[in-house]
Amino acid sequence: MKFSHKYRVKLRQHISLNDVDPDGREGLLDKQEAEPLIQHYAERLRDLQYRLYAESGRSLLICLQALDAGGKDGTIRHVLGYMNPQGCRVQAFKQPTPEEQSHDFLWRAHRAVPARGEVVIFNRSYYEDVLVTRVHGMIDKKTCRQRFRAIKQFEKHLADHGTHILKFYLHISKQEQLQRLQRRLDDPNRWWKVTESDFLERKYWQDYQHAFEDVFFHCNSKKSPWFIIPSNYKWYRNLIVSRIVVEYLDSMDLQLPEPSADIEAIRKTFCSNGCV
User: Fold this and answer.
1) Model pLDDT, residue 276
2) How is residue 102 annotated by DSSP?
3) Is the predicted pLDDT of residue 79 greater than 70, yes or no?
4) What is the pTM assigned to this prediction?
5) Comparing 266 with 183, which gets the higher pLDDT?
6) Is residue 276 domain-resident?
7) In the β-sheet with 163-171, what is the strand arrangement from edge to edge?
8) Domain at 248, CATH number
9) pLDDT-based confidence at 51, cuts 50/70/90?
10) Do 151 and 105 contact (CB within 8 A), yes or no?
């Protein structure tokens, strides 16, 4: 069984986040022991991304979802940040702009998906439009179901055209979230990240849990799987996400393209007496 299957949400199966331990470490390690493994997967990730970029036939979309302070930025910085920015970019999804609101909810996502050879990381994603909007009563159940169907069709369209999709939910406890928010308040260098909504949204904690559970059930497929990552321990989160992405890219059997130039002719012409 592939390592990733431990964290992958099973198809057509209801899941309760209350049954998933955000402290879970599978009996593994501590931070000091994990760091060499994280470094190993980071270096492997850099090599695989290079091959994806060179092959330029397929692409990878990584969606990161979490509640406030769940670790999206940290995952990007400590895991996915090892990739070459020439073939990798991050797209943040914040409150829609007036232009974005004048289109269908998937318009801004479609504009940001990866080109062939590219890795794109969505920091939040189009799933906000079936999470925040649902929790705050901006859409009803009928509209939510319509959006679930639209998302599935959207992801199928991307997959059919060579975009591979990995979706990670970074699972933390309510107490861990409070501690992280408190650390932001205690650190002047992070005050810019603090908003009142971070604390106001905590009263909707259980509503968000239920909304995510519905997303996992309705918008999970073989070609665009969801993974639930225990994330109270940041080092463990980094290890698991990096390993899953590496495993997935490895399974794509990425090949470097054949050279377009005559390498031997170039050697003979320009390097017979040493390249200059």
Assistant:
1) 56
2) T
3) yes
4) 0.95
5) 183
6) no
7) 88-92, 119-123, 59-65, 163-171, 226-230
8) 3.40.50.300
9) very high
10) no
- In whole angstroms, what is the distance from residue 151 CA to residue 173 CA? 27
Averaged pLDDT of the chain:
94
Give me Rg for the CA atoms of the chain: 21
Give tens-digit pLDDT for 240-262. Answer: 999 999 999 999 999 999 888 88
Residue 241's H or E segment, with its range, is helix 234-251
Instruction: Return the H-helix or E-strand segment holding 41.
Output: helix 31-55
Rounded Cα distance, 36 and 38, in Å: 5
Task: Please state, in angstroms and as integers, the Cα–Cα distance from residue 210 to each residue in 10, 185, 205, 213, 217, following that order.
Answer: 17, 28, 9, 5, 11
Domain-embedded: residue 275 = no
- DSSP H or E segment with residue 64: strand 59-65
C-beta of residue 62 within 8 angstroms of C-beta of residue 114: no
Cα dihedral value 133, 137, 139, 141, nearest 10? 110
- What is the residue range of 142's domain? 3-270
